[in-house]
Amino acid sequence: MTTFETGISRRHFLTGVAATGALAAFGLAGCAPKTRDTAPAESAQEASTANDTPDWLGTAPEIDPADIIETRETELLIIGAGNGGMSAAATAADLGLDFTLCEKTGDIQKSRHWFGAINTRYTEAAGAHVDEGRLLNEFSRYASGQCDQRVINVWIRESKDVVEWIDPILTAAGMKCAFDNDIDHETGGTSYYLAPMEHYYSGKDAEGKSLDRNTILLHYIQERGYDVTYNHDLAKLVQDENGKVTGAIFKVTDGYVQINSQLGVLLTTGGYVSNAEMLRACNPMVDRCVTLQYGSPNNTGGGIKAALWAGAAKDTIGAPMIFDRGAVFPGEDAGIVTEPGEIAGFRGTDKQFNLGSQPFMKVTRDGRRFCNESTPYDFCCFAAAEHNGGVFCQIFDANLKEDVKRFSTIGCSRQTQQLLAKEADTPIDEIYAAELEKGVMKKSDTIEDLADELGFTGEAKETFLAEVERYNGFFDAQADTDFGKEAYRLSSLRTPPFYGVWYGGSLLTTVDGIRINENMQCLNAQGQVIEGLWAAGDCSGSVFGNNYPECIVGCACGRTITFGRHAVRHMAGDIA
Fold it and tell me: What are residue 529's DSSP bridge partners?
């Protein structure tokens, strides 16, 4: 449903940063250039120098018009076939738009099956109404106010309608929604607002294979005459003489393809989880506490960079999505280990070891506890960054199953509870045989021997053994006088065998991106709309700051799906 026109477009595009002042919005050393007044579009590239452009950003590529082998026309251009892009494409198909969906790889991206939605039919059926005003302010509290509450409100208010839209699509394909409402308890030693919102759609096809939301949406648009244009890697955006975004240029096998878009461009290109230079500059905590990269190797920040070259502004504060599940061997440190220019890599190579998110006793290399282990996933990792190696050790005993059941964690950490309940009659050593065989999980019949297995020596070993006794005393008294962890999440370390695992953070994605308004329109450093450019999902910003709010379960994916749909409706004039 896309028309094609061979030849070179008459529209011209900017090759430099359209507004170098926009880059001053970063505010992070190494991530931000020197502050400069906004320059006219015509002189932006001339004004930009090696001294005021971050190394990771560089400048937009110069593309010889002769290398553009094809020019196409479309009504609406969506870039990135992930959670946001597929939601946007299905919405565009519903509206009958002549859209093009470009994906840099040869396939659509994986679904994030858990997503948060507020006061839906499933919420209300469970009698679990969410206080939307309280949720909004809880979100802002996580971000220390470094967010746009109007943007967040779009997710809070529209996610219900998104479920009404997508539910019949998914259920008709054989998926069913499981709504998690079992979160009526305190956590983190303080009053986090645990709003019930997690929706999980799952199911199997006729051959017994697990169904996937993005695959179902792909079939949905294909049935309506659309498809994904694969192996189109975004090189840069196209702008007219006034700076309006009118299309994009993509790198393909034989050169470049330019796609002009009547309504504009929606970026749904993901974050920069695999760009080591961007991580170090814009999310320095990653290099201090992460041991495993569990995100997409395709997410290298291309969409964010293209938007910045077009004059957009990025979030000032980095926001990595880190889980405390990156198991490593004793003695291994956190940090990026790959060479500059390579995909960001870490010492951990396995999948996430979910057990790390359970609030057992955790210590650093000096043998001491260092935080309340019951806090959100990334808090423990952030705290460990202040200690040797940026890693921590989790300790538990043979009462693992009973302890985990009592802990009753929320979100995806609940997978451990579900696993152990399912394997109620299976010995711990059989459940975690792979980890024990590999050596990332250590086991001993005494705490003293376990300390040796985990690498504690000298003073650190003595401190560790004393800390175990102190922790046992907290369990006996049902009061953690060191860090204030809830009594029901304390456990004893007295029943052999004893186990320990060293962990760092597991990095799933980054959620700081291009600043947007409540219609997902990209903004420059002055908060002005960049005409013709929208963003949704992890390449967009204005929502998160410093962290991923774990107790607001599924908010990142819920925001992505909601914003992708909203952006297309706004581009098409379906909403004001």
Answer: 523
The two three-digit tokens of residue 395, written as one number: 């300790």
Say if residues 394 and 541 touch (Cβ distance below 8 Å): no
For the record, the structure tokens of 480 come out as 């953690």
CA separation, residue 291 to residues 335, 346, 390, 441, 506 (Å): 6, 5, 9, 16, 6
How far apart CA 383 and CA 386 sit, in angstroms, is 6
CA distance 174 to 186: 35
| pLDDT tens sequence across 17-70 | 344 444 444 434 456 543 333 333 443 334 333 456 888 999 999 999 999 999
E strands, 75-218, where? 76-79, 99-102, 114-116, 176-180, 198-202
CA 391: distance to chain centroid? 21
CA distance 543 to 516: 9
First to last CA, the chain: 26
What are the angstrom distances between the C-alpha of 344 and each of 280, 341, 409, 451?
10, 9, 30, 32
CA distance 367 to 380: 15
pTM to 2 decimals? Answer: 0.91
Distance separating alpha carbons of residues 225 and 440, to the nearest angstrom: 50
Q: CB within 8 A of 480, min separation 6: which ones?
A: 189, 372, 474, 486, 487, 490
Structure token digits, residue 427 = 């010995």
Q: What's the rounded Cα separation, in Å, for the pair 113 and 107? A: 18
Show the 3-state SS of 176-232: EEEEECCCCCCECCEECCCCCCEEEEECECCCCCECCHHHHHHHHHHHCCCCEECCC
